[in-house]
Structure formats: structure tokens, C-alpha cells
Amino acid sequence: MLAGAALTVAILLIAAWYAGRESAGLEAQRANAELQQVTQQLASTQLALAQQKAKSGQLEGALSASGKAARLALESKLQAQLLEAQAEANQYKAILDRERDASNINSRLIDTLAQPGARLLPLKGVETAADSTAYTLVVENSRLVLVASKLPEMAQGRQLQLWIVRKHEPKFVSCGVFNPDHDGRVLMSFEEGSVLSDVASIAVTDEPEGGSPVPTGSKLLETLNAAPELSRSP
């Protein structure tokens, strides 16, 4: 009987061991399932975080690009304003320069006219200078001043040359070469008083750059009583 009781206890122990093992197996399966679920949740969270980072990066890039575009637009606007201000400054400078030139011209003319014996000799334009306006102020044995406007633009390698035509030798006296400014204007003086006597007429001719010893080119300006000799090349 004792042997039967021992057998019964052994069977119960074995059954309990198997039951415990089965229970442990069930707990392990449940733990594995929970672990897999947590792993999946972690993976989902990591994916969502990566997607959020990517969106944040795109947004930051868009904001940066937007900021850069705004800076470029501002820089472009400021540059345009600067160019406009420079253009206005250049216009004001050009006006001041013209006023200054006009003031200098007036001062020189007034100074010349104030000298005893000053004569005003109007010039007429011919050929390509037909629309030009010019005159000279001549002070015998002292000074000659030429003022002209609307002169034609000179071809490359050509200059205008101012001449005194005298009644006595030297017959033709060069007063120098010049180029009109971009508005076709010129103001020049000649102050070799030794040849500013017996002046018959004044003329301006088209000459090679640097001038000629005697008139050779076409005549563009002349006094109303121009000497006929100037029409011919010696």
C-alpha cells in the first residue's frame, strides 16, 4: 500500500512538472508575442521619427530657400535703388558741369569783351555745319575766342582746325585743332598777340588729326566776309 501511495505521489509530481513546464511555455510564448509587439511599435516609432525628420529637413530647406530668395530680392531692390541714385547723381553732375562750363564761357567772353578794341565776328556754317552757330571775339594784338554749338561729329582721324586769315604775311595762321564735345559745342582761345593783327577773316576747316600747316580740308565755318583764298588749298 505504501508502494501504491508512493507511485501516486510520483505520478502527481510528474504531472505537476509537466503542467509547470506547459505553463512556462505558455508564458514564454506570451512574452515573445509581447516582445514582437513592442519591437513592431519601436520600428513604427522609428519610421515615424525618420519621416518627421525628413519633413522637418524639407521645411527647413524651403524656409532657407525662401529666406535666400527674400534676401536676393532685397539685394536686387537695393541695387536698383543704388543705380537709380547714381543715375540721378550723374544727371545732377552733368547739369552742374554744364552750368559751370556756361559760367566759365560767360566769364571769358565778358573778360574779352571788356578789353578795348574787341570785335565780334559772327561765323556762318557751311556744308555739314550748316545748322551750326558760332562767333569769334577778336582783340587786336591780344586774344581770339571761338564759341560754337551744333557742330557735326568728326570722322575718326579727323579734327577741326581754326584759322586766322590775315591781310599780310603770314597769310594763314593756325589757332589750333579741336574736337566738339558730345553736344557739338566748343570754346577755345588763341592768345598769340603777335599774329592777331590785320585779321581779314576767321574760318574752321576739316583737317587730318593733328592739323595741317595750311588749310586743306573742307570749310565748315567762315565769317561773312571770308577771304576767297581759303577756298583753295595752296
Beginning-to-end CA distance, first to last residue: 169 Å
Please estimate the helix content: 40-55%
Number of helices: 1
Helix and strand element order: HEEEEEEEE
- How many DSSP E strands? 8
Describe this protein with a few key phrases.
single chain, alpha+beta, Immunoglobulin-like, 2 domains, 8-stranded antiparallel beta sheet, 8 strands, 48% helix, rod-shaped, disordered C terminus
Model description:
This protein has about 230 residues and is α+β, with helices and mostly antiparallel strands. It folds into 2 domains: about 1-115; about 120-230, Sandwich (Immunoglobulin-like). It contains 1 helix and 8 strands; from the N terminus they run αββββββββ. An 8-stranded antiparallel sheet has the order 5-4-7-8-1-2-3-6, with helices on one face. A hairpin with a 7-residue loop joins strand 1 and strand 2. The chain is rod-shaped and about 135 Å long.
Topology:
Blueprint: H1 2-113, E1 118-125, E2 133-139, E3 143-149, E4 158-166, E5 172-178, E6 186-190, E7 199-208, E8 219-223
Short overview:
The protein is 48% helix and 25% strand.
